[in-house]
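So, could you explain this one?
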Amino acid sequence: MPVGTYTVSYGLEQFAQDDRIDGADDLRALLSTYLRRQVGPAELVALRAAHAATLAGDLDAACEADRRLRAVTLSAEFRESAQQSGDRLLSLQRDLRTDEDGLLERYAARADADETPGNYAVVLGVTTALAGVDERTACLLCCHGFVTGLLGAAQRLLSLGHTDAQRVLDDLRSEMVAVVEDSADTDIEEMAPFAPLVDVLAAEHERAERRLFAS
């Protein structure tokens, strides 16, 4: 769905500007770091919590996962990007989905009132649960969307052709499965992303004079 992720690079632009990545091998290694150190221990944990809370009809628990994810996301640009893409996904789902029990509208009302941030991963967890998509599949969807989004950014930032991009995506499929499995038994209180260099370069990107991407 068009949720604006084509406008973000999650720090990849700064890696390219600093000549820290050069070609498909470097990109593959960096995306692996993103998956294992950020997406897996943070976004997927929040997604799982929101998905389970939605199935249980527990909106408070979904919002708690939402707030916790925002609290552990250090980069201001990452927080803003997650909230903006979450808002777009939520808006699309409200237009397209029949909200029989009103949970989606109640969640949207809390997001509109700034009672919960509406992070993309949490909105994805809520909406996939309502759509009958199982938790594991929702997590794989999150990983796939994240990687393909960054590969699209890489094609604009690096000399990366479509064939190389597809090879990187294929190479990372097992990595996606691994991080999904690793996130299965993690409680939201254990949510702990740790990728210091990514956070430092994201902070540099916030102050860059010229930027192609929002993050």
Summary: The chain has a mean pLDDT of 88. Residues 97 and 131 are 8 Å apart (CA to CA).
